[in-house]
Each structure stands twice: as structure tokens, then as C-alpha cells.
Amino acid sequence: TYVKTYLRDGERWLHKKKTRVVRHSKVPEWRQTLKYDSCDVFGRNLLIMLWQKKQGFESNQGLGGAELDLDLLQLSKISVGWYPLFPIHTLGTHNADSP
Predict the structure, then answer these.
(1) Strand-by-strand arrangement of the 61-69 sheet
(2) For the chain, which residues score pLDDT lower than 50?
(3) Domain 2-88 in this protein, CATH class
(4) pLDDT per residue over 32-55, tens digit each?
(5) For 69, which DSSP code?
(6) Which of 5, 51, 64, 83 has its CA 20 to 30 A from that of 94?
């Protein structure tokens, strides 16, 4: 299982980042920080997608995702919370297939 993020500017998906893969865990913990430059986040949304890594030639499975409007967050403070996951295909028109 891994997390993939993008900054989104309208219909454009920019600045992809990805965590390492956590295997054999029903409750994965990444303990990683994915950083974006502050100049890149204004006026953009952050897409966060959870993927399950498949074996061999099988396509990775999108487990769900969330989209955050970064202009609504107070970026000078740490924000902790739970966000509902929606189906990957509802997060935009970009081909969100993994990797």
C-alpha cells in the first residue's frame, strides 16, 4: 500500500509525489513527509490517493482518495484530521492510474 499525491491547478495535475510501499499490513503507517514548495501551493488543491500494490502484471488498485483546497487551510499550522476517501475516478479527469 502506498500514497500518491499531486498538486492540482484546475484540470492540470502537477508535482507528483509518492510514499514508499508498505507491504503485508492491514494498518499501514508510512511516517513520511511529502513536501511541496510554498510557492507551488497557492490557488491549488492537493489530491491524496491511496493505492494497493499488486503482484506481477496486475494493475495497482486505487483504494480511494481525497482532495483538499489548500487555500482553505492555515498552512502555518499543523493540520491533523480524518478525511473521507472517495473513489479514485471521482477525483478528476486525469488518468489517475498508478504508478
Answers:
(1) 12-18, 2-9, 45-52, 61-69
(2) 93, 99
(3) mainly beta
(4) 989 998 888 889 999 999 999 888
(5) E
(6) 83
Domain boundaries, given as residue ranges, for the chain: 2-88
CA distances from 39 to 10, 13, 14, 36, 70 (A): 17, 16, 13, 8, 12
pTM to 2 decimal places: 0.80
Q: What is the spatial distance between Cα 52 and Cα 82, in angstroms, rounded to a whole number? A: 19
User: For residues 54 and 1, is the Cβ–Cβ distance under 8 A?
Assistant: no
Neighbouring-strand partners of residue 66: 48
Residue with cell string 484546475: 10
Q: Which residues contact 69 (CB under 8 A, 6 or more apart)?
A: 45
